[in-house]
């Protein structure tokens, strides 16, 4: 008999798959030829659904990755690998998120890929995120407690930590590796700081983003305000919820197998 934790994990993975499938079905259309593929635990299901659209559509498409994980998924799926240096404008980018609020502001960077993720998000005509129900909140910081990811050049790490405290961050910390000694190193050879802020400051993510980016040594910030066109959340019961930038919300949408 499956344990409660195993059952919960299965439900969460089913939720991620449902959200990813629905997002691909709605936003990766036949006419789309240039597609950005993001990072995170929902993205394998995104690629799985795109592959299922068939070789006739996919042979004319190029897929631009945000990092090592998505590059491998593209290659392993038999899809054509593209590069942002060649394709600076994309039809659509689909990515995961660490947290999404009711206004479709995002926190990203739990995997320390937020610089490349933001480039691909801004390069796309449509930027869409997929997540499970645990990533949905009323305000940023409500669910994601680790803090705002801030990519910094290594030389400036101590300086940035001090400046983040002056901005109101509660105990910002250099992110350390779990399977290595020392700090996490991004795909761009930088360090990553996790900077928790009070909810009051998180209510204005655009303002907070600008203040953090003014700090010398900051490369990019994992706040994504006013850029997401739609967010798809997989629920525990297999249904999905869809939030759109126009303010519309669909709850308990039944998904296709």
Instruction: Determine the structural class based on helices, strands and strand pairing.
Output: alpha/beta
- Principal-axes geometry comes out as globular
Helix content: 25-40%
Task: Please state how the strands of the largest beta sheet are arranged side by side.
Answer: 2-1-3-6-12-13-14
Span between termini: 25 Å
Order of helices and strands: HEHHEHEEEHEEHEEHHEEEEE
Number of strands: 14
Count of helical regions: 8
Q: pLDDT below 50 for ≥5 consecutive residues: which ranges?
A: none
Q: What fraction of the residues are assigned to beta strands by DSSP?
A: 15-25%
Q: Give the overall pLDDT as a whole number.
A: 93
Give the biggest beta sheet: 7 strands, mixed
* Rg from alpha-carbon coordinates: 18 Å
How are the SSEs placed, and which strands pair?
Elements: H1 4-27, E1 34-37, H2 43-52, H3 55-58, E2 62-65, H4 68-76, E3 90-95, E4 99-100, E5 106-107, H5 114-123, E6 124-132, E7 148-152, H6 157-167, E8 173-174, E9 191-195, H7 199-202, H8 205-213, E10 218-221, E11 223-224, E12 230-234, E13 240-244, E14 249-253
Parallel strand pairs: 1-2, 1-3, 3-6, 6-12
Antiparallel strand pairs: 4-5, 5-11, 7-9, 7-10, 8-9, 12-13, 13-14
Helix pairs in contact: 1-2
Verbal overview:
With 257 residues, the protein is of the alpha/beta class. The protein has 8 helices and 14 strands. Helix 1 packs across helix 2. The radius of gyration is 18 Å and the shape is globular. The model has no long low-confidence stretch (mean pLDDT 93). Its EC number is 5.3.1.6.
Short account of what is shown:
Helices cover 32% and strands 23% of the residues. The two termini are 25 Å apart.
């Amino acid at each position: 008999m499956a344990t409660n934790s195993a059952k919960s994990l299965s439900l969460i993975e089913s939720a991620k798959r449902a959200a990813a499938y629905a997002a691909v079905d709605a936003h990766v259309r036949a006419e789309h030829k240039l597609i950005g593929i993001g990072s995170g635990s929902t993205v394998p299901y995104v690629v799985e659904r795109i592959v299922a659209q068939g070789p006739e559509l996919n042979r004319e498409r190029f897929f631009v990755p945000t990092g090592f994980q998505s590059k491998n998924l593209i290659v392993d799926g038999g899809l054509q690998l593209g590069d942002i240096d060649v394709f600076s404008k994309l039809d659509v980018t689909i990515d995961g998120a660490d947290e999404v609020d009711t206004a479709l502001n995002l926190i990203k960077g739990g995997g320390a890929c937020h610089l490349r993720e933001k480039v691909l998000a801004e390069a796309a005509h449509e930027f869409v995120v997929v997540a499970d129900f645990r990533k949905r909140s009323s305000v940023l910081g409500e669910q994601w407690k680790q803090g705002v990811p801030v990519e910094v050049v290594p030389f400036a790490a101590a300086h940035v930590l001090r400046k983040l405290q002056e901005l109101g961050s509660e105990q910002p910390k250099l992110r350390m590796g779990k399977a290595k000694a020392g700090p996490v190193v991004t795909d761009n050879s930088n360090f990553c700081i996790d900077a928790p802020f009070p909810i009051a400051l998180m209510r204005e993510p655009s303002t907070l983003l600008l203040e953090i980016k003014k700090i010398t040594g900051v490369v990019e910030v994992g706040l994504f305000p006013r850029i997401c066109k739609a967010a798809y959340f997989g629920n525990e019961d297999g249904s999905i919820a869809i939030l759109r930038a126009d303010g519309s919300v669909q709850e308990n949408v039944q998904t296709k197998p």
